[in-house]
Amino acid sequence: MTPPMKPWIISISLAYLLGSIPFGYLLVLVFRNEDIRKTGSGNIGATNVARSGARGLGILTLVLDALKGFIAVTIALHIAATYDVGNIYDIGVAAAVAAILGHCFPVWLGFRGGKGVATALGVFLALVSVSTILVLLGVFLVIVFLTRYVSLASILAAAVFPFVAFPHAPVRTPVVLTGYILIPLILILKHHQNIRRLLSGTEHRFGSPKVAA
What pTM did the predictor assign? Predict the structure, then answer.
C-alpha cells in the first residue's frame, strides 16, 4: 500500500461503516421491540419509522441518519488534512458516497438498508454551501407542497443536485464530478419501487393515514 492511498482507504472504510449504522432499525427494536423491516414499506429509514406510528422515533432516525453522514465526511476531511493530502475535497466526496452506500447497503443487515436521503442531507451539510442546500430544500418543499409526494420530492431534489452543486464546488475535479453524479444516482435507484408506484398512481401521499406497502 503506497502512503497516498492510506487516507483514501481509511476514510472510505470508516465512512461506509458509519453509514451502515441502521439507526431506524435499532431505535424501533430497542423502544418498541419490533422489526421495522416487517412494517409498512420494510424500509429502515425515517419515513417508514414515522409511518409505523412512531413519529418521535422517525424524527430521531432522521437526525441520526443525517448526523452519521455529516460525521463521516468531517472525519474524512480531517484524515486527509492530517496526511497532508492535496486533494482533501476529493476524499470528502468519496467518503460521502461511501456513507450513503453504507446506509443503503449496510453490512449488518444483509446489505438491505434505507434510501439514503437523510444521510445525503448530512453529507451535503458537510460538503456544499448553504445556498446549495437551500436550493435543494426549496425544490423538495415545493414538490411536497404541490404533490404531497415525499418520494417524488426526494427524487427531483437529488436529480438537480449536481447541476446546482458542481458549479460552486471548491474544486471541480473528475472525482468530485463523479461523486456528484453517483450520489443522486444511488438515491434515485433506491427509489425504484416508489417510481413504479408513482407511475401507477398508488404512491403514498404525505399526510395520508395509509401506510405505504
Answer: 0.91
